[in-house]
Amino acid sequence: MLITYIFSIFKLNLRSISVVFFIILVIASNKIYSQSDKIKVGNDEFSSQQGGYYNYGDKDKVNIEVNVWGYVKFAGKYLLPQGSTLTDLISYSGGPMTDSKLEDIRLYRPKNDSLGISKDQIIKLNYNDLVWEEKVNFKNKLNTVLLPGDILIITGEPRYFGRDNVGFILAISSVLISLGILVISITNNK
User: In order of start, what are the domains of the chain with their CATH numbers?
Assistant: First the structure.
């Protein structure tokens, strides 16, 4: 009764209250779940920025910048000590995601006259057997040393697993059970 009196004073209806509530909810959720600019990554002396820059550099060594794109947990630009390898970079980036296509890893190495690279190169690697197969073929596994400007591209697409069917089957089952209960209750009332 008090609530209806308040509504009548301010001439509010349920629709306007729900709109105001929705706006408050959107504003509050942005404040609660906003990202922090000071997330610690790697060495405690360095921090990550929201743009995906990760500093694993060593102040006592020469450092290089490389990029990781695609199906890894932390894609972005990385500052690493010179001599870091491809597997180091994959590990720093959180490893390949479940949906990654490890049989099609690409390392793009741009032209760099100062390093003696006369044209752009793409090195294709297959690490699928390391994660998904029982036997590993070590013959074509390169643990390439990264060079400045390298871009590691881990391709992927959503993988399909048998457990993905469970949600679909449960949804259809619940609809069928609900329809069955509705039909039984209607026929029993007649």
Answer: 2-32 (no CATH), 53-156 (3.10.560.10)
